[in-house]
Amino acid sequence: MSNDVEQGTAATADARSLRLLQVGSFTSQFDRLMIAPMLVVIAAEMDRSVEAVSVAAAAYLLCYGVAQILWAMVSDRFGRVRTMRLALLLAMVGGLASAAVPDILWLVVARGVTGACMAAAIPGALVYIGDTVPVKVRQAPLTDLMTSSAVGMTMATVGAGIIADFASWRVAFALTAVVAGVLALFMGRMVEPELGPPPRVWSSLKGVLGNRTALLVLTLVLAEGLVLLGPLTFLPVVLHASGLSVTLSGLLTAAYGASVLVFARVVKGRTAKVAPAMLILFGGSSAVLAYVLLVIDHGAVAVVVATVLLGGGWAFMHSTLQTWATDMAPGYRATAVSLFATMLFTGSAVGAAVFGSMVDAGRFTTMFAITLAVSVPLVVTATLGRRRYATRGH
Fold first, then answer.
1. Do the beta carbons of residue 234 and residue 355 sit within 8 Å?
2. Residue 315: which residues within 8 A CB-CB, separation 6 or more?
3. What 3-state class would DSSP assign to 34?
4. What residue intervals traverse the membrane (predicted)?
5. Residue ranges of the domains in the chain?
6. 325-355: string of b/e by CB count within 10 Å (b at 16+)?
7. Confidence band of 71 (pLDDT split at 50, 70, 90)
8. pTM of this structure
9. Model confidence at 290: pLDDT above 50
């Protein structure tokens, strides 16, 4: 991995570069989440169950996670910007293929390929910021990155549902493909950070996996992926089961992205005054409360309120874990961040795979009870772990 900015890198992140990274984050999140409000529509058109279509969502998330290490290796050898541009161009191909698939099998394959390619967007942005922004002021641009992600989530649940209802779900897949291609073109003007000799893959993995703090953070984010992202794919389906249209279900679950957007600004303004452990505790408690509510009731009002609470959980807890990830093994930042993303989306993919059959059978309470059971020890362990990390002088 390249030297940290404190050790002297020639490039610094300018405002234009940060904006392009934010657009990349927006596009990645739109592409990741847009299948959620379209599950019912795709299932109906292909004459398959929601569970069968949810395999495409799980494939996307799993490939997104597994591809992280590959992109980290490419990034260390060929540069951050070059890697993101290549990945976005390949994602464009995968997205266009997703729009043209003839059946569910090819949809699973195309979404898996697209997820593997989109995998470089946000982690690449995190590493770029880690390379070019000092750690003391790093959470601000990272929070801005998360804000753009939130807007992407919001637009995905609203826009994809509307497009699927009034045009076609294929148009939605084609749209993000075109945006990815255009973004790759504009990123050509970004300045590459100067990297040292690329480390050996094994030495990078050993450097991260031999770090006790890194192991803790990676375990925490695996559970976080299951808790905060696993059920998220199915919230529009839960609403649709209560009799709401695809468009309205998407509009209501857009409260998630909107709440992340609002809470992210709060986080950005409080990071200098509130200890990271307390940010994790607040966000985690918000997620726990959301699942308590959903276990009791999963009607429209309860789902919307819980969606807002989950957005708060993501804004406060995930942004703090994400900042922690950029500093837990600074000598191997690309590998550390890639493993962080791998564990996050592996947890999410496990959730999508496990919960798919439950949702198809209408067993919503079981899904929410499982996530509640996981969320409580996650919050306690993450809070205590981050507090201990701070007391050791970090």
1. yes
2. 146, 150, 259, 260, 263, 264, 266, 267, 283
3. coil
4. 52-74, 86-107, 113-130, 142-163, 169-188, 209-234, 246-267, 274-294, 300-317, 337-358, 364-384
5. 5-391
6. bbbbbbbbbbbbbbbbbbbbbbbbbbbbbeb
7. confident
8. 0.74
9. yes
